[in-house]
Write a structure and sequence with these properties.
The structure is a homodimer. By secondary structure, chain A is α/β, with parallel strands linked by helices. Chain A folds into 4 domains: about 160 residues, FAD/NAD(P)-binding domain (3-Layer(bba) Sandwich), CATH 3.50.50; about 110 residues, FAD/NAD(P)-binding domain; about 120 residues, FAD/NAD(P)-binding domain; about 90 residues, Rhodanese-like domain (Oxidized Rhodanese, domain 1, 3-Layer(aba) Sandwich), CATH 3.40.250.10. Chain A has a 5-stranded parallel β-sheet with strand order 3-2-1-7-18. In chain A, strands 9-16-10-11-12 form a 5-stranded parallel β-sheet. In chain A, helix 1 packs parallel to helix 9. The longest helix of chain A is centred in the middle third of the chain and has 15 residues. The radius of gyration of chain A is 26 Å and the shape is globular.
């Protein structure tokens, strides 16, 4: 059997390696139109910025290695021009010699990846404008920086790559501005979470322009002009406005696309055409929580889908179970992680959601290096299942995101989290881990009438609520929500007569714990509509200041 | 209703706080025979050694705080002498005044904790011998160190506390020896995993004596003598040979104990006597995997059981789901984590186990600070469920242990792990996380005939096997398993004729990955009994060198 794979970054080489591990006899051939293979796309921003990452680190394997180790033939600089589905034949061009030839496949795997989404900007073709999409483009950026020593850079788009490039350029001493068309940086996060990322960027001398669209890149003056009239110096411009699935050849062959525009596949990575598979960034995925199709190109998913296709092709039965869209990014001193749905996505998907913000130390507070995690969790009120989590903090974010991702994978309900037997010692966590607290807060809201109100919900119904600030008088005097009454928790019981039992009351403390205690007091005293402000005064300050 | 709790460390105060959060009207009273309440036992080793942990950090709350915040009456230095079950009455002694009085309870909660297991050693009562069990004892050790400036210390016992105290004493400049009666340090780990801990101790100038029992502490000469004749200088001696449940008063009242010697409770923390509950270190627990009773006193479990009892007492329905015995300890530069059963425990519990060692970097290797994780995983061959995991490494151990703990909680099978959508970016992990690789290796062994053999199994059947070392000639020449044949992977296919297809063959590389590739080649060529050596040459070296 002759297996041909188009593309040899993460997904394509995973297919090949798995197919070979399962079976020695098949011919396995990969056509790759670029020079580099099996490289780490996720490492590219670090390759640009930090000298200790060598080119060989990113792409440690060459075709000779694959030939020797796995008897896999990788032909680089070979572009597949067309697929003849009826003949099972490919038209291939050797880009070095220009020679065109035909090759027969029994099984074809499309691992054509993604291509940058190029926005409609005047001047995009200037020599100082780059997309970071592969090693070649990273090389070009590095060479440009070395040769021209740019003083300023503009990054267009503020997703993962934009954030990582911003950090890495700042570290090389370049002034950086980030321009993002929507109203927040890192649009995959909920708005109030992304405020923290924006703040971190600004704290590290990155200029941030949100809600502005770049309309023109002026090559001569080396400036970038936005639709709001901002004119930013940009000796170097990096376009990182996302990617789209590279599906040209698939479409031409008549392979069905999904609603997201990526190639539609079943759980065995099979496309609509017999014996044609699709894996990695060109294939559509779906959310594990409910099967909703999605397009989330990620290296981790590419590896997974490649392995599954390689197995199925050789008689195995592995099948894809969907994704959570789990992602993580380092932004200077912050780590930002997310898994599952954001509040916005969950609402859009039709869920009646319970939403909470949980602000807790990542480890025992008396231990050196303790810092704060802000955890936003979204659960489905109907099933009580966790739908998604976003976490921002300095340390321990990756741990909690992975624990949440694992819990969501197994259909965890909010109430399950407090029962987890997680590892505790002072250097690593708190006696009750922040994951457990998150579950407790959600469960109390879902099942014990300890209602949580987000600042946004509060804001949009401000007049309905009496606000009781249960912090100390001193804290209250330093700053408080307009119109709030100050009744410190200790005197709440005696002073509760000031309040009416059927009033809609929002209590809050600094982060939420004392607010919860106050809520307990009022509910136990017979108050009927008491909310604790999600994330307390701290979250209020974040959402009204940054 | 009058709720009385005996004991106010982690579990007792959790009961009280939860009971109050649920209900404002009950009287809640705690009797505590010591002075300190609600303190972090787990922080004590760090309090001894590191100046930046203050006494207030360990015990931030006093009875006045509990009174003000929760209307809970904590009576310190009050010892409960007896329980009269028929009258629901306690005999209580005020240790400050000597006055004895009686108090009536409607609900009684035993949170009496644990007491040090004092081994039978001559000279144990000397003034330079300490147990570290509470803040008072930590104070005494600190005072002793300050006043006498000991040059040498002997730690008897090598569990969590022993390890943490060793590190903290070394950091204050004291010479430390650890003496452990069984043949390994950290007896809760499997022997070959504990070798790495022993090595780390020795690398950090801790003398380690395993398989030696301390028989005498010589107060005058300040020496410690073992049954093997070792005489160790010990100006300071710390006994950390474990704890036993403090069940004296429970027994006297006729409360039933479990097979472990701790108080038997149901999932609502109710004892055999109506209206008496037991929580924390005095109560028996059980393994979540199969319900086997166990005694694993841990702060995290104490908090959990306290919260559950507090809820049930006030009409709630929380119930305990069992533990995994998850634990973590920092030993100098290593982190050691475990969850679920060890190989030894699983075998003892009657499981037919699949065991693998997975050695992988904790994050992308080209990224600064990457280091190696050694993951040992145990699965049940019958159900394919994960039974337990031990991890040792420098970074990222806590994350993986918590992910494994979460997966085991939800009954994960080995094959589920590779499907997890964990967070990947170069600073945090590898494209396939080590957790996923662990699942793949186990699944391949369970379902795809990619058998793994541990070094111990190999050693005990050495003559049965032909050993094929698939590393390079150069690596082979540097050192190899006696009797091994060297056939580098690249030439394995052509040279496989040297081997007989029905021979029992053990292949190995350095850590396991290339060994797996070699195993695939041989199996695909028709070899029928091929094993990959678990953890490869690296594990062999560890088990034969340290």
């Amino acid at each position: 059997m002759r297996i041909i794979i188009i593309g040899s970054v993460a997904a394509g080489t995973s297919v090949a390696a798995k197919a070979r591990r399962n079976n020695l006899d098949n011919e396995i051939v990969i056509y790759e139109k670029d020079k580099d293979i099996s490289y780490s796309v996720c490492g590219l921003p670090y390759y640009i910025g930090e000298e200790y990452i060598q080119r060989e680190d990113l792409s440690p394997r060459n075709p000779a290695w694959f030939k020797k180790r796995f008897d896999i033939d990788i032909h680089i600089e070979h572009e597949v021009l067309a697929i003849d589905v009826s003949k099972k034949e490919l038209e291939v061009k050797n880009l070095q010699t220009g020679v065109i030839f035909y090759d027969h496949y029994d099984i074809l795997v499309l691992a054509t990846g993604a291509a940058p989404l190029k926005p409609n900007i005047e001047g995009l073709d200037s020599e100082h404008v780059f997309c970071l999409r592969n090693i070649i483009s990273a090389d070009k950026i590095k060479e440009y920086i070395k040769a021209r020593q740019p003083v300023s850079a503009v990054i267009v788009g503020s997703g993962f790559i934009g954030m990582e490039v911003a950090e890495n350029l700042i570290k090389t001493g370049i002034q950086v501005a980030v321009v993002e068309a929507v109203e927040q940086v890192m649009p995959s996060y909920d708005p109030e979470m992304s405020l923290r990322i924006k703040n971190e960027l600004q704290d590290n001398q990155v200029q941030v322009f949100t809600g502005e669209k770049v309309v023109k890149i002026n090559a001569e003056e080396r400036t970038v002009v936005t639709d709001k009239g901002s004119v930013l110096p940009g000796d170097l411009v990096i376009i990182s406005t996302g990617v789209k699935p590279a599906v040209g050849i698939a479409q031409q062959a008549g392979v069905e696309l999904g609603t997201t525009g990526a190639i539609k596949v079943n759980c065995h990575m099979q496309t609509s055409i017999k014996d044609i598979y699709a894996v990695g960034d060109c294939a559509e995925s779906y959310f594990l929580m409910d099967g909703t199709p999605c397009y989330r190109p990620m290296g981790s998913t590419a590896n997974k889908t490649g392995r599954i296709a390689g197995d199925v092709i050789t008689g195995g039965s592995l099948s894809f179970r969907g994704i959570l869209g789990t992602g993580i990014v380092k932004v200077f001193n912050l780590t930002c992680g997310q898994t599952g749905y954001t509040e916005r996505e969950a609402k859009k998907a039709g869920y009646d959601v319970e939403v909470i913000h949980n602000i807790k130390p990542n480890q025992t507070e008396y231990f050196a290096g303790s810092s704060e995690l802000v955890i936003k969790a979204v659960a489905d009120r109907k099933t009580e299942k966790l739908l998604g989590v976003q976490i921002i903090g300095k340390k321990g974010v990756d741990k909690r995101i992975d624990v949440f991702a694992t819990a969501i994978t197994f259909g965890a309900k909010a109430g399950d989290l407090a029962h987890l037997d997680l590892a505790y010692a002072p250097p690593f966590s708190t006696t009750k881990d922040p994951v457990m607290y998150t579950g407790m807060i959600l469960d109390n809201a879902l099942n014990r009438d300890r209602k949580i109100i987000t600042f946004q919900e509060f804001k949009s119904n401000r007049k309905k609520f009496t606000v009781v600030d249960v912090r100390s008088n001193r804290d209250f005097e330093k700053g408080h929500i307009e119109g709030a009454i100050n009744i410190p928790l200790g005197s709440l019981r005696e002073k509760s007569e000031q309040l009416l039992k059927n009033q809609s009351i929002v209590v809050h403390c600094n982060k939420g714990v004392t607010g919860n205690a106050a809520q307990n007091v009022l509910i136990n005293l017979g108050f009927t509509d008491v909310y604790n402000l999600s994330g307390g005064y701290k979250e209020y300050k974040t959402e009204t200041t940054f």
